[in-house]
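Reading a protein record of the kind used here takes little practice once its layout is understood. An example of such a record is reproduced below.
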Amino acid sequence: MSHDVVRRVVAEALGTALLVCAVVGSGIAAQRLSPDDVGLQLLQNSIATGAALVALILAFQPVSASFNPVVTAVEAVLGRLPVSVAAVMVAAQLAGGLLGAVVANVMFELDPVSISTHARGGSGQLVGEVVATLGLVLVVFGALRSPRVDTVAFAVGGWITAAYWFTSSTSFANPAVTVARTLSDTFAGIAPGSAPAFVLMQVVGGALALGVLRLLHPRPATTQET
């Protein structure tokens, strides 16, 4: 494995771990600070997650800042990454996400692993995951074609913060984060039985976004656009 690939893998693992820490940790804090107001809990959780995403993407983007297996898979299909590198990055994202959930639990003096009992599902929420992931992928790769690549961080943070509210699923939109959230029986958790359907819908959303991207941007991105 080349030094460049190692750097990418470390960046993806650490970035995803910190992202999950933000998602789960802010959910726990919100639950404790506003125990009787679910709407306020969601507001606190969404603001913290969106802000963390902006900061993490800005910090890790010079190396690698996908933090999401769907985004990485689309990069590979579009020819921006070798498939072998993408596979290692996805493994790093999954491992980092699990570590992030454990660390978040420990920070708040909970058991390192507490399997979530928060069942999520139904046709509405599954459609919400398709919409959330479709929009996320379009935002990422559309912003990458902007003359200012640093807009990606703000575009992604803004999309996720908004999608927490306008999608019925509260916008998981990330298989690594979804799997990690099964390890925390808190506000941000998802029951293991609910996770596979969410992940499947995220893959569907990513595939639909790929089709839209090829329609909107038929030519490969130039060096300046990446």
